């Protein structure tokens, strides 16, 4: 009888314990669903209330139809000679330097897409005159002197695609993520709190500012959704220790803690293939390192496109874009359209400045690098028929797309250009969560062309269009912010821990 009673008690206790863990697990799942629903509601609202930006005022430069450059000029400007010891050490005459500076600002006026957006003649001609007035006082002028002059004079341009002899023009405008995980915070109705010796301490201020300014949603080492201290810092600024003021609401005691911020750490490597696929914890992971083939034998991007319908059958997918600096948009658009089952439209405004110089640069590029003979015939036809001197433009109103699966997208501040275009489209799709740091911010100016200044051989690389994708502001240098901030080198491990903690891989579809 005693044995039966013990068995009964054991069974009841087991049921209670099992019920407790099931309830606890279910509570975790509900918390995660709430987190996802908040992201969806905010994005859906933004998409529904977005309108294409009127960019016509930035396309008012009618001078692109003038014959400002002769064929001889264009041959000189596309006679690419990359820097070597002879070029770097050559001393240039004042007339040679003046000619290069004048060519630079003519190219900007007649070819550069956002010339009017960044101030037009009023700003650019002033900068040109400042350089020309400074040159007579400089003595012997070499390649590096001109490069430095141009970088400093044009530093007002916030354009992630613009470079002068491989030096980015807005490198100091890039924002980097810095963070601290010494104290992990949670949130209740009273604010953000951390636990010290089993006591809640609320963050009343950080760096003498409201604490919510610095609180970022994160994933702890154990996979829990929480908050940590983080901020975006200008690349040219120093990282400094910051003070946290913590208050015990029961005793009203306040203590101060000093924490050091760490830079977001990236561990990206040169890829052997653009796309690789693997499975961890029953979750497929697409690692997309480039939006162009890495070599002539790399067909992984085409395999990637074919994977869409197969991966759509998985409840959870991780897309790892860390380190992807861009390439072409066409293949990821095909993949996304196949995955969702329809063409994706986002709110965007795009203008493209068609000049003779742009066509000439495309022609030279095609002659050197492209095997597409039909493209070269088309470019030559446009030049011969004078099919240039105008703007192309288009506006689209975006839509919100339902998606039953859960997609985690891993991001760092190397993600740029075409891969950021991928981000802008993914933001219109339900149940997509971005994890890591901000992207680089390199979207404003598409359709890059390359020109070589004839005397110094400095290479100018800039775009001939202007574009706003899913935003009405220029995000170059800042990029898209993630939903969950973590040190990007830890992003994959943290997402897998999160999936384990919240039973995500065993969840039903998110709908």
From TrEMBL:
Q: Give the stretches traversing the membrane.
A: 7-23
User: Sorted alphabetically, which InterPro entries does this protein's record hold?
Assistant: Tail-specific_protease (IPR005151)
UniProt keyword annotations, A-Z: Membrane, Transmembrane, Transmembrane helix
Q: Give all residue intervals belonging to the Tail specific protease domain.
A: 254-487
One Pfam family this sequence matches: Peptidase_S41
Q: Which SMART domains match?
A: TSPc
Protein known as: Tail specific protease domain-containing protein
Show the taxonomic lineage. Bacteria, Bacillati, Bacillota, Clostridia, Eubacteriales
């Amino acid at each position: 009888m005693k044995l039966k009673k013990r068995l009964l008690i054991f069974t009841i206790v087991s049921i209670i314990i099992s019920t407790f863990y099931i309830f606890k697990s279910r509570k975790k799942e509900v918390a995660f669903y709430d987190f996802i629903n908040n992201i969806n509601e905010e994005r859906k609202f933004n998409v529904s209330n977005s309108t294409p930006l009127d960019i016509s005022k930035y396309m008012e430069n009618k001078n692109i139809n003038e014959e400002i450059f002769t064929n001889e000029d264009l041959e000189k400007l596309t006679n690419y000679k990359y820097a070597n010891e002879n070029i770097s050490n050559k001393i240039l005459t004042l007339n040679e330097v003046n000619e290069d500076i004048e060519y630079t600002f003519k190219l900007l006026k007649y070819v550069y897409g956002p010339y009017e957006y960044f101030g037009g003649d009023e700003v650019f001609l002033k900068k040109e005159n400042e350089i020309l007035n400074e040159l007579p006082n400089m003595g012997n002028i070499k390649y590096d002197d001109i490069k430095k002059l141009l970088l400093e004079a044009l530093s007002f341009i916030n354009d992630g695609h613009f470079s002068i002899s491989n030096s980015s023009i807005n490198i100091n405008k890039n924002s980097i993520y810095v963070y601290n995980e010494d104290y992990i915070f949670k949130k209740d109705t009273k604010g953000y709190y951390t636990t010290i010796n089993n006591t809640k301490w609320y963050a009343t201020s950080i760096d003498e500012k409201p604490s919510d300014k610095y609180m970022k949603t994160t994933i702890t080492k154990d996979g829990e959704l929480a908050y940590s201290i983080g901020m975006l810092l200008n690349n040219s600024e120093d990282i400094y220790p910051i003070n946290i003021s913590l208050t015990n609401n029961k005793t009203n005691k306040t203590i101060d803690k000093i924490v050091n911020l760490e830079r977001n750490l990236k561990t990206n490597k040169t890829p052997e293939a653009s796309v690789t696929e693997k499975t961890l914890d029953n979750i497929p992971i697409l690692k997309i390192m480039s939006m162009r083939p890495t070599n002539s034998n790399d067909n992984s991007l085409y395999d990637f496109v074919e994977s869409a319908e197969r991966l759509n059958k998985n409840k959870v997918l991780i897309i790892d874009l860390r380190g992807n600096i861009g390439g072409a948009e066409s293949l990821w658009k095909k993949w996304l359209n196949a995955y969702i089952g329809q063409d994706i439209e986002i709110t965007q405004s795009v203008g493209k400045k068609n000049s003779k110089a742009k066509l000439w640069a495309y022609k030279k590029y095609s002659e050197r690098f492209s095997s597409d003979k039909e493209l070269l015939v088309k470019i030559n036809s446009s030049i011969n028929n004078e099919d240039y001197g105008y703007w192309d433009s288009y506006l689209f109103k975006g839509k919100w797309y339902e998606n039953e699966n859960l997609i985690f997208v891993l991001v760092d501040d190397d993600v740029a250009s075409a891969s950021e275009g991928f981000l802008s489209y993914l933001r219109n799709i339900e149940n997509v969560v971005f994890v890591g740091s901000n992207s680089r911010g390199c979207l404003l100016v598409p359709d890059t062309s390359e020109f070589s200044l004839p005397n110094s051989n400095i290479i100018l690389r800039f775009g001939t269009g202007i574009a706003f994708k899913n935003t009405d502001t220029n995000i170059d240098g800042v990029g898209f912010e993630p939903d969950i901030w973590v040190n990007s080198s830890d992003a994959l491990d943290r997402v897998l821990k999160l999936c384990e903690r919240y039973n995500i891989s065993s969840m039903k579809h998110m709908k």
